[in-house]
Automatic annotation (TrEMBL):
<comment type="similarity">
    <text>Belongs to the CutC family.</text>
</comment>
<keyword id="KW-0963">Cytoplasm</keyword>
<dbReference type="Pfam" id="PF03932">
    <property type="entry name" value="CutC"/>
</dbReference>
<dbReference type="InterPro" id="IPR005627">
    <property type="entry name" value="CutC-like"/>
</dbReference>
<protein>
    <recommendedName>
        <fullName>PF03932 family protein CutC</fullName>
    </recommendedName>
</protein>
Amino acid sequence: MKDYMLEVCVDSVESAIAAERGGAKRLELCSNLIIGGTTPTPALFCAVRKAVDIKIHVLIRPRFGDFCYTDAEFKIIRKEVRQFRELGADGAVIGILRPDGTLNMEQMEELVREAGEMKLTLHRAFDVCSDPMRVLEECVELGIHTILTSGQEESALAGAGLLRRLNEAAAGRIHILVGAGVNSGNLEELCRVTGLNQFHMSGKKVLDSSMKYRREGVPMGLPGISEFSIWRTEEEEIRKAAEVLERSPNVF
């Protein structure tokens, strides 16, 4: 088997099972994937942990929006890192910025201490930081294991140039995990143009709700998002992605 990472982002037990069956090596567990992900509940973590055998990294993000947090929000983040460590999570996915777009080193240091032996990923707060090369070096200093990034673009393909430079700058000191728009159809190209072998995807498909009675025009969340559409990881898409990585001449 080749040396690569295929991490699948999931927000349900059903998606977690599909990801593992498809060949994912690790999960990023969150809630509310449709808005970029927020912290999952302990009950969801425990249910997923019982359902799968692969490693689980937990997203710690208290709300939708930016990555500059109030004191109250930071206290919640710190407590959740500790809570999921105690529950047995393999890793935590974190990130805090200052208003000027720099990494909040003081708060990140506190989270590193709370994490103990868990692996840590800096999430896509990295993609809106003001100086990615500086933040990479700060992550190495902090002992962060992985940076999840699209190369500061809307999609990983668009950010391929920076991803390649990050790979060169990392020089094996920290993993660069490619995310945003990753799918089985573009993985081979991403491997080739970035030189990377670590990828993050959801492999989602949209399912129709099982509801028969439907009262339209009563939105419960963001405008334009149907209350009768459910996002779920598709096992076959993850299998195709794993097969691409296994046969790619750019993955060793």
